[in-house]
Design goal:
transmembrane helix; two-stranded antiparallel ribbon; Na+/solute_symporter_sf; globular; membrane; Na+/H+ antiporter like fold; 2 domains; mainly alpha; 22 helices; single chain
Length: 419
């Protein structure tokens, strides 16, 4: 009877301490729990179970918990090899689903391999791409523009105003340096190499289009922190290409071949402006839809890009493999190589005091050396009757991608070696 009365008195005193509320705990009051005598008929384990049977059951399930004496602010320590109750109650996450999504999102890394594979396949077996005729170019390019819009937001444009000098340098490289190079190499192809006038017009048309979205991805692989700046520069050149590209094409080749300026403006609005605007609006007002389709866009973009690279080569394989095909390849290679070099070294003199001058040089090199050759190809197929006009943009699509991603691998290797 004495042990039972002492047990009841202990529980009463402890519950009275809990009922006193948190104010007593803040005031530093301690609850005095009498220690049970060793010869008591109520054991310590049963005493703990009588106070809190739930915690007792958890301790049996997950292992005993050690508490530091005199410090109740710290979390309890688990014995080694034991699992905490909170961890054991976490739902199991299907790792396979996240792995598949990760593969889909990172499928852009296979873009260089896809470009090389489609190039070789188009040259070896042209019928594999000849079904992708000219009428598919504009929708395919519109899909790539839509993918850019879905992965962009108004914040990307706000980033542009933080570095207006760099934006201006990229714009000058895209629409002044590049057209001058295009005019130079286009005239060289006609005067020095005696190529048809349509070939020179194709080189000039290739130099008049806006920046390529591939430059954004190349910048991300080389300097991830500069990717927003690259996106803003490409978006700005793409948005203004509605007016600049027809104007440049009229100035450079308007006297040689007929150019429908109004039709080009309408085509650029349909291929570039409308898809990007749709992607931005969808990302702004329906983000849950963008989150659902965003993992699927990279593999689809790689597939569409491979088709757009291989199809022009397969359709124009006879022209490319002709007697002047190698000459066009050398001219286009020299054209892009000059643009990459000027885009790299010229910003080094202008922004030599910038803390990230090397990263800025690489970004502007991609922006100047890579342009939307697919847009030039679509314009050539739609507005020029001579099919030879599409040959330089077709070769440019392949060479631009190969040279750009070769620089990505070179600069990434140098950075890894330096670190």
């Amino acid at each position: 009877m004495n042990s039972i009365s002492r047990h009841l008195q202990t529980q009463f005193s402890l519950f009275a301490c809990y009922d006193s509320g948190p104010d007593s705990l803040r005031a530093g009051k301690r609850c005095q729990v009498p220690i049970l005598p060793r010869n008591s008929s109520v054991s310590a384990s049963r005493f703990a179970m009588s106070l809190n049977p739930v915690s007792s059951a958890q301790s049996r399930r997950h292992g005993s918990i050690k508490c530091k004496s005199g410090d109740f602010s710290e979390s309890p320590e688990l014995e080694p090899g034991r699992e905490s109750p909170s961890e054991s109650m976490q739902p199991s996450v299907p790792g396979e689903q996240f792995y598949i999504i990760k593969i889909l999102k990172e499928s852009n890394s296979f873009l260089p391999h896809a470009v090389i594979a489609s190039t070789l396949l188009a040259l070896v077996y042209p019928p594999s791409f000849t079904w992708f005729t000219n009428r598919y170019y504009a929708p395919a390019l519109g899909f790539l523009m839509f993918a850019v819009g879905v992965n962009s937001s108004e914040r990307d444009f706000l980033e542009a105003f933080k570095r207006p000098a760099a934006i201006s340098a990229g714009y000058i490289g895209q629409f002044i340096v590049k057209p001058l190079l295009g005019y130079f190499f286009g005239m060289m192809s006609v005067t020095m190499f005696s190529l048809p006038t349509s070939i020179g017009a194709g080189v000039m048309l290739t130099s008049c289009v806006s920046g390529a979205q591939l430059s954004n991805y190349a910048t991300f692989l080389t300097d991830p922190s500069m990717a927003p700046l690259s996106i803003v520069m490409t978006s700005l050149s793409t948005a203004t290409a509605v007016f600049v590209t027809p104007l440049l094409s009229l100035l450079l080749i308007g006297k040689r071949l007929p150019v429908d300026v109004k039709g080009m403006v309408s085509s650029i609005l349909q291929i570039v402006v409308a898809p990007i605007t749709a992607g931005l609006l969808l990302n702004r007002f329906f983000p849950w839809i963008c989150n659902a389709i965003r993992p699927l866009l990279p593999p689809l973009s790689v597939f569409v890009t491979a088709l757009c690279v291989g199809a022009p080569l397969a359709i124009n394989v006879d022209s490319i493999m002709s007697s002047f095909g190698l000459t066009i390849l050398l001219i286009i290679t020299a054209f892009h190589l000059s643009a990459f070099i000027i885009g790299y070294f010229l910003p080094g003199f202008i922004f030599q005091k910038a803390p990230d001058v090397k990263a800025l040089q690489r970004t502007l090199s991609f922006e100047t050396g890579m342009q939307s050759s697919l847009l030039a190809l679509a314009l050539a197929n739609r507005f020029f009757q001579d099919p030879l006009v599409a040959v330089p943009p077709a070769i440019s699509t392949v060479m631009m991608s190969l040279m750009g991603f070769s620089l990505v691998m070179l600069w990434a290797r140098r950075r890894a070696t330096a670190q």
